[in-house]
C-alpha cells in the first residue's frame, strides 16, 4: 500500500484544481447517511463488550475546559481528574488528554507531572478563527513552546464557505509547520471544521479532504461553541473520509467528535460507528478521541454500575 | 339518387389498418358483410392470427413514441380525430345506419355521440394523471409521488352490437393514456371500424397506435390473449364463453383483463374506469432531508 | 479474527411471548380443530425447534370459514364507516401495545432478525391499520364515486416472508371497505396470524368478520376456488399467481396479485457512493433477500465497478449472521429447508454458468436453515441468476456503460416490481425513473415502505396496488 500523497500533488497546485477535486468527490445523501448512523445506533452492547467500551471511551477523552473563566485552579482540578478519573477505583484508565486554552498549557503540563496524559491546546484564534494568519501562527507556536503535545486548530469557515479552498488548505499547512518543535519533533495537529457552520454534509466531506491533504493528524467536528456539534452522522461521514484517505494514501488520520456527547450510551454509539466503519485500527486513543467534559462522569457511573451491580449517583463521582 | 342513374357507384375495398398502413389480410381471405336484413354491403378482410401478430409488432413499435408523447400532444391528436370525423359525418351516418339497421336520425345521434366521445377523451389526456396520481404523505424524509403510466399494448375485442360508438368508446380510453391498441372489430359489423382507420390515418395519430382488424374474435382472440408481448386485454365484445377462454389464456403473462360488462347505453357518461383499467401506478421515492434542522442536513 | 470490540450476545427475551403447544383454526370468532383433525407443525427456522402444532385447514374448513364470513358480511358492511373505523383503530392500538411480543413471535416463526421485526415489520403493521381505519368513513371521498360498495367475502392468501405485514396489507383495506375476510397464512409461518385472531377478539371484532385458516397450498386453492368468495387477493410466487388468474377466469371474482420480482438497482458513476452501498446491502440482504421487491440485480456503471465492488465487499464483511433474536444480528435464517434448497440450487447454477461467486467469511450455525450473503460478479443478462427470482441473499452484479443501456437491461425482465437509481443528478433520476417499467422506483434510497404509498408491479409481477388510496380499489365494487 502506498503511504504517500504524491498521487494528490496536482490537486493542491491551484484553487481551481483543488475545487475540481473536491467537487468530484462522491456526494452525500443526507437521509441515507443519517439512517445508517441511526441504524448503527441500535447496536446493543452488553456485558464484557460494554466494560471494554467504557474503559476505551474513558481513555479516548480529551477532558476539556475552554471557558473565559478558566483559572489555574480549575485546570489543575481537571488534570487531577484526567489522571485519576475515579479516585475510588485505581483501575480506571486515564483520559487521553486535557484540552485547554494556550495560556493554560503550562499550568496543565505542570499539574499532570509525568502522567501519561497529553496536553492539547486549542489555537488559531479559537473558536471563531477570526484573526490574521501571523496571529494564528503565533498562537500555535506559543502553545507548542509551552509544552502542548497536541494542537486543536480551527479552520477559517468564512474562507471555506466563500470557496477559498486553497487558502483553507494553506492555513492548515502553515499551522502544521508551526507545530514543529526546535528538536524537530512535532505536536499532533487536530483540525476543527466546525461542522455546524459548514452546514452541509458535502462540505464536511470536502473539508475533511482539505484537512487530510494538508497534513492533519486528526480531523475534528466542532469547537463545542455552536448549536450543533458532533453528531453520529457527521462523525460517520468523517470516518468514511479517513477510511477512504487511508485506502488511497496509506496515511492514517484520526477522528475527534467534540461537543454534545454526554452519556455512555452516546459514547458507545460512536465507538460502534468506529468499529463498523474503520475497524479496530482506529479503536485506540491514538486515532479516536472524544472532546468532552461531562461525558466522563457518566462513563464513571456506568463503570461503577458494572462493577458493583448497583446504579450509581452523581455524589459518587467527582465534580470539578 | 334514382336507380336509373347512369353513373355506376365506386365500391370501396375495405382494408385493415395496421402500422399506419392499409393492408389486406395476409391470408387473402375475405368474408361477406351484410346489413341486419341480410343485404350484402361489402367483403371485409377475414384477418388471420398472423395479421394479429403483425398488429402486435406495430403496436409495440409505436408504444415508445406514443407513451412518451406529452399528454397535451395526445389530447391534440384525439381532438383532431374528432375534427376529421365531423368532416366525414355523413359517411359514418350511412355506414352506421347500414351496419346496425338504424334510421338516419338514430345513426346520426350515434355518430355525434362518437365524435363527442373523442372530444371527451381528448380532454382527459392531461387530467387523468392528476386525478389518479399524486403525492403520498409518507412518514419519513421522502418525497413520494405516484403517477399513472400506460400498461403497454392492449388487445381490444370491440363490442359486437355497437359497431361504432361502442368501438370508439373502447379505443379512445386505451390510447388517451398512452397505450397502443390492437382492435378486433365487431365481427358482423366491421365496416365503420375499418373506415375509422382511414380517419385515424389522417388525424396525426402515429402509425401503429391503433391497429384495426376485421374477422373473428374467436379466431384471433386466443392468439392475442396468449401473446407474451401484449400487456392487457379488453374483452368488451367477447361472449361469456370466449371471455373465459381468453381470460385463462391471458394469465400466461398476467395480462390486465377488463372483463365484459353489460352496457345499456354506450352514450352514457363512461367515467374513468376504462382508462384506469389500462394504467399502471408507478411510485417514485426520493429522500428529501431538511434544511438546517440538524445543522448538517443535506 | 476476533475483534477487540466483539459484541457480546444481546438476545431479546423470549419471555414476552407465550406460545401454546397447539392452535386451532379461527372461524366465526372461535378457535376450532380442523374437520378431519389434521395438524401440522411449525418450526423455528433458526433452530428447527418445533414451536407449536397448528390445525391444518382442508376444504370443509375453508367452506365453513367462507360461510362464517358470508354470514358476517351483511351486518359488517351495513355498519356505519365510522364504526368500522373504530374497530380498526382498536386493532392498530392493540398491535402497538403487543408489538414486542409479536416481533419476537414473528422472529421465532419466520427466522428474520428481531431488529427487522421490531423496527420495520411491526411499526408498519400498526401504521397500516391506522391508515385504513381512517378511510373507513371517508370512502365517498376516495375518488370511486358516491357510496362505493364492498365486494363481499375476500379470500386472501399470504406468503411467509412478511407474515404479519402481509396480513395487515390484506386485512386492513378489506375491513375498512366493509368486506369480510378468510385469510390463509403460509404453512411455515402461521403463528402471527393466529395471534392476530386473538387481537381481533380483544378488539371485540364481530364474529366471522376475520377468519384465519392455516394450511398448505391446497387450502389456498380451495379458498380461491370457493364459489362464495367475491374477491381474491394473493401475494406469492408468479407461478401460483398465474394459476389463480386462470382459476378465477370467468367467475367474476375480482383479483389482485402481488408476485415475484427481479429488481434492478442501478448505480451511476456520480452516485453518493457510501449511501449507495448501504442501499445495495439493504436492498438484497434485508430479510435475507426473501423480498419480492429486493434489488437482486445490481447494475453498476462500468467506470466505478471495481471501486464499488471493493466497498461492497468490505461492507458485507461487517454483516452479522446468526441468532435472529440477537439484537445485533443483521442476517437471520432462511425461512424453510425447501427455500434453502432452492437458493442453494440457483446459486450452484450461477457458478455452473460461469459467474464468479463470493461470500464474506461467515460461520453458519449448525442447526437451522442458513445461507451466507453471496455476490455473483461477471454476470450477464443471459445468466440464470440475472433472470430468475432467487428469493434469497444472493446479489447478481452486472455492468452498463450508458443510461440507455442501464434502462434497457433493467427492463429486460418478465418482472416489473421495483427498481433503484443512484445518482446525484436530478434530471437523470427523473429521466430514468420515467423509463423504468416498475411499480416502485427508489431513487437514492431502497426498500422503503409506507401505508400511504401504493405498492405493486408491472408485467408478471402482478396487478393491482396495495397501500394508499389506490389500495381501496381492490376491495370496492368499482
UniProtKB/TrEMBL annotation, chain A:
Gene3D superfamilies: Aldolase class I (3.20.20.70). CDD domains: DeoC. Keywords: Lyase, Schiff base. It catalyses: 2-deoxy-D-ribose 5-phosphate = D-glyceraldehyde 3-phosphate + acetaldehyde. GO terms for molecular function: deoxyribose-phosphate aldolase activity. Its EC number is 4.1.2.4. NCBIfam families: deoC. InterPro entries: Aldolase_TIM, DeoC, DeoC/FbaB/LacD_aldolase. SMART domains: DeoC. It comes from Streptomyces antimicrobicus. This is Deoxyribose-phosphate aldolase. It holds the Pfam family DeoC.
From TrEMBL, chain B:
Residues 25-257 form the Aldehyde dehydrogenase domain. Transmembrane segments: none annotated. Keywords: Oxidoreductase. It comes from the Bacteria. Pfam families: Aldedh. The keyword Oxidoreductase applies. This is Aldehyde dehydrogenase family protein.
From TrEMBL, chain C:
Residues 32-477 form the Aldehyde dehydrogenase domain. It comes from Streptomyces antimicrobicus. Keywords: Oxidoreductase. Gene3D superfamilies: Aldehyde Dehydrogenase, Chain A, domain 1 (3.40.605.10), Aldehyde Dehydrogenase, Chain A, domain 2 (3.40.309.10). SUPFAM superfamilies: ALDH-like. This is Aldehyde dehydrogenase family protein. Pfam families: Aldedh.
Amino acid at each position: 500500500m502506498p503511504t504517500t500523497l504524491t498521487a494528490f500533488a496536482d490537486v493542491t497546485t491551484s484553487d481551481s484544481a483543488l475545487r475540481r477535486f473536491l467537487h468530484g468527490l462522491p456526494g452525500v445523501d443526507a437521509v441515507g447517511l443519517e439512517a445508517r448512523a441511526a441504524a448503527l445506533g441500535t447496536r446493543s452492547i452488553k456485558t464484557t463488550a460494554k466494560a471494554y467500551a467504557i474503559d476505551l471511551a474513558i481513555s479516548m477523552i480529551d477532558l476539556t475546559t475552554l471557558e473565559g473563566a478558566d483559572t489555574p485552579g480549575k485546570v489543575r482540578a481537571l488534570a487531577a481528574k484526567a489522571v485519576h478519573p475515579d479516585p475510588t477505583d485505581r483501575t480506571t484508565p486515564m483520559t487521553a488528554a486535557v484540552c485547554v486554552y494556550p495560556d493554560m498549557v503550562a499550568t496543565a503540563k505542570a499539574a499532570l507531572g509525568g502522567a501519561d496524559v497529553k496536553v492539547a491546546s486549542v489555537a488559531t484564534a479559537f473558536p471563531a478563527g477570526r484573526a490574521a494568519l501571523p496571529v494564528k501562527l503565533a498562537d500555535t507556536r506559543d502553545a507548542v513552546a509551552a509544552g502542548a503535545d497536541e494542537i486543536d486548530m480551527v479552520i477559517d469557515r468564512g474562507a471555506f464557505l466563500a470557496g477559498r479552498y486553497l487558502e483553507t488548505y494553506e492555513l492548515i499547512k502553515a499551522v502544521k509547520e508551526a507545530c514543529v518543535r526546535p528538536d524537530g519533533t512535532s505536536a499532533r495537529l487536530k483540525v476543527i471544521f466546525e461542522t455546524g457552520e459548514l452546514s452541509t454534509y458535502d462540505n464536511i466531506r470536502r473539508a475533511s479532504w482539505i484537512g487530510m491533504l494538508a497534513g492533519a493528524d486528526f480531523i475534528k467536528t466542532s469547537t463545542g461553541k455552536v448549536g450543533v456539534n458532533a453528531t453520529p452522522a457527521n462523525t460517520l461521514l468523517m470516518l468514511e473520509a479517513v477510511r477512504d484517505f487511508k485506502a488511497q494514501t496509506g496515511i492514517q488520520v484520526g477522528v475527534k467528535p467534540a461537543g454534545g456527547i454526554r452519556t455512555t450510551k452516546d459514547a458507545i454509539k460512536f465507538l460502534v460507528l468506529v468499529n463498523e466503519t474503520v475497524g479496530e485500527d482506529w479503536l485506540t486513543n491514538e486515532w479516536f478521541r472524544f472532546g468532552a467534559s461531562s461525558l466522563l462522569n457518566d462513563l464513571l457511573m456506568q463503570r461503577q454500575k458494572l462493577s458493583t451491580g448497583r446504579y450509581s449517583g452523581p455524589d459518587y463521582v467527582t465534580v470539578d | 339518387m334514382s336507380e336509373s342513374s347512369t353513373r355506376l357507384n365506386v365500391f370501396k375495398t375495405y382494408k385493415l389498418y395496421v402500422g399506419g398502413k392499409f393492408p389486406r389480410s395476409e391470408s387473402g381471405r375475405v368474408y361477406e358483410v351484410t346489413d341486419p336484413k341480410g343485404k350484402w354491403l361489402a367483403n371485409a378482410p377475414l384477418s388471420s392470427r398472423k395479421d394479429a401478430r403483425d398488429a402486435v409488432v406495430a403496436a409495440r413499435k409505436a408504444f415508445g413514441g406514443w407513451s412518451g408523447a406529452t399528454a397535451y400532444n395526445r389530447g391534440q391528436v384525439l381532438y383532431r380525430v374528432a375534427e376529421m370525423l365531423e368532416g366525414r359525418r355523413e359517411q359514418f351516418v350511412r355506414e352506421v345506419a347500414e351496419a346496425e339497421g338504424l334510421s338516419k336520425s338514430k345513426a346520426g345521434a350515434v355518430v355525434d355521440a362518437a365524435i363527442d366521445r373523442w372530444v371527451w377523451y381528448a380532454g382527459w389526456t392531461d387530467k387523468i394523471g392528476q386525478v389518479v396520481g399524486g403525492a403520498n404523505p409518507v412518514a419519513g424524509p421522502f418525497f413520494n409521488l405516484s403517477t399513472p403510466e400506460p400498461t403497454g399494448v392492449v388487445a381490444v375485442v370491440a363490442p359486437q352490437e355497437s359497431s361504432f360508438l361502442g368501438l370508439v368508446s373502447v379505443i379512445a380510453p386505451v390510447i388517451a393514456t398512452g397505450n397502443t391498441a390492437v382492435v378486433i372489430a365487431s365481427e358482423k359489423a366491421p365496416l365503420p371500424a375499418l373506415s375509422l382507420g382511414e380517419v385515424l390515418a389522417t388525424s396525426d395519430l402515429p402509425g401503429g397506435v391503433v391497429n384495426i382488424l376485421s374477422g373473428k374474435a374467436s379466431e384471433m382472440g386466443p392468439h392475442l390473449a396468449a401473446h407474451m408481448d401484449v400487456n392487457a386485454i379488453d374483452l368488451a365484445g367477447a361472449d361469456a364463453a370466449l371471455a373465459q377462454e381468453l381470460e385463462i389464456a391471458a394469465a400466461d403473462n398476467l395480462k390486465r383483463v377488463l372483463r365484459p360488462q353489460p352496457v345499456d347505453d354506450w352514450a352514457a357518461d363512461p367515467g374513468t374506469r376504462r382508462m384506469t383499467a389500462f394504467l399502471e401506478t408507478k411510485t417514485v421515492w426520493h429522500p428529501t432531508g431538511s434544511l438546517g434542522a440538524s445543522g448538517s442536513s443535506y | 479474527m476476533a475483534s477487540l470490540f466483539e459484541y457480546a450476545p444481546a438476545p431479546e427475551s423470549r419471555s414476552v411471548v407465550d406460545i401454546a403447544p397447539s392452535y386451532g383454526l379461527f372461524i366465526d370468532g372461535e378457535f376450532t380443530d380442523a374437520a378431519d383433525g389434521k395438524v401440522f407443525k411449525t418450526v423455528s427456522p433458526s433452530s428447527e425447534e418445533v414451536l407449536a402444532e397448528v390445525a391444518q385447514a382442508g376444504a370443509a374448513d375453508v367452506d365453513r370459514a367462507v360461510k362464517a364470513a358470508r354470514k358476517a358480511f351483511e351486518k359488517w358492511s351495513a355498519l356505519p364507516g365510522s364504526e368500522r373505523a373504530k374497530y380498526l383503530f382498536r386493532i392498530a392500538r392493540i398491535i402497538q401495545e403487543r408489538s414486542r411480543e409479536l416481533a419476537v413471535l414473528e422472529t421465532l416463526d419466520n427466522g428474520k432478525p428481531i431488529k427487522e421485526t421490531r423496527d420495520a415489520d411491526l411499526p408498519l403493521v400498526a401504521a397500516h391499520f391506522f391508515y385504513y381505519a381512517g378511510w373507513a368513513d371517508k370512502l365517498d371521498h376516495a375518488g370511486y364515486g358516491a357510496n362505493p360498495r364492498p365486494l363481499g367475502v375476500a379470500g386472501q392468501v399470504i406468503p411467509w416472508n412478511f407474515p404479519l405485514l402481509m396480513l395487515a396489507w390484506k386485512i386492513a383495506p378489506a375491513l375498512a371497505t366493509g368486506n369480510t375476510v378468510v385469510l390463509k397464512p403460509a404453512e411455515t409461518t402461521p403463528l402471527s396470524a393466529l395471534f392476530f385472531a386473538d387481537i381481533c377478539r380483544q378488539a371485540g371484532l364481530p364474529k366471522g368478520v376475520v377468519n384465519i385458516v392455516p394450511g398448505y397450498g391446497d387450502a389456498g386453492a380451495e379458498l380461491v376456488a370457493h364459489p362464495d368468495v367475491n374477491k381474491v387477493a394473493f401475494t406469492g410466487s408468479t407461478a401460483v399467481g398465474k394459476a389463480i388468474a386462470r382459476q378465477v377466469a370467468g367467475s367474476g371474482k375480482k383479483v389482485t396479485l402481488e408476485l415475484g420480482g427481479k429488481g434492478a438497482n442501478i448505480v451511476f458513476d456520480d452516485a453518493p457512493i457510501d449511501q449507495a452501498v448501504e442501499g445495495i446491502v439493504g436492498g438484497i440482504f434485508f430479510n435475507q433477500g426473501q423480498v419480492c421487491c429486493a434489488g437482486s440485480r445490481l447494475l453498476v456503471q462500468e467506470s466505478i465497478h471495481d471501486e464499488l465492488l471493493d466497498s461492497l465487499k468490505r461492507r458485507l464483511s461487517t454483516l452479522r449472521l446468526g441468532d435472529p433474536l440477537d439484537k445485533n444480528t443483521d442476517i437471520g435464517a432462511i425461512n424453510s429447508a425447501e427455500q434453502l434448497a432452492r437458493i442453494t440450487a440457483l446459486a450452484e447454477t450461477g457458478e455452473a454458468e460461469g459467474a464468479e461467486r463470493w461470500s464474506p467469511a461467515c460461520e453458519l450455525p449448525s442447526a437451522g436453515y442458513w445461507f451466507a450473503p453471496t455476490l455473483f460478479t461477471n454476470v450477464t443478462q443471459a445468466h440464470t441468476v440475472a433472470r430468475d427470482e432467487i428469493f434469497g441473499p444472493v446479489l447478481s452484479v452486472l455492468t452498463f456503460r450508458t443510461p440507455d443501456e442501464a434502462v434497457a437491461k433493467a427492463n429486460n425482465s418478465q418482472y416489473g416490481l421495483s427498481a433503484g437509481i443512484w445518482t446525484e443528478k436530478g434530471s437523470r433520476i427523473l429521466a430514468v425513473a420515467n423509463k423504468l417499467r416498475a411499480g416502485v422506483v427508489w431513487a437514492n434510497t431502497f426498500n422503503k415502505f409506507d401505508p400511504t404509498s401504493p405498492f405493486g408491479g408491472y408485467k408478471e409481477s402482478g396487478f393491482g396496488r396495495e397501500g394508499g388510496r389506490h389500495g381501496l380499489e381492490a376491495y370496492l365494487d368499482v
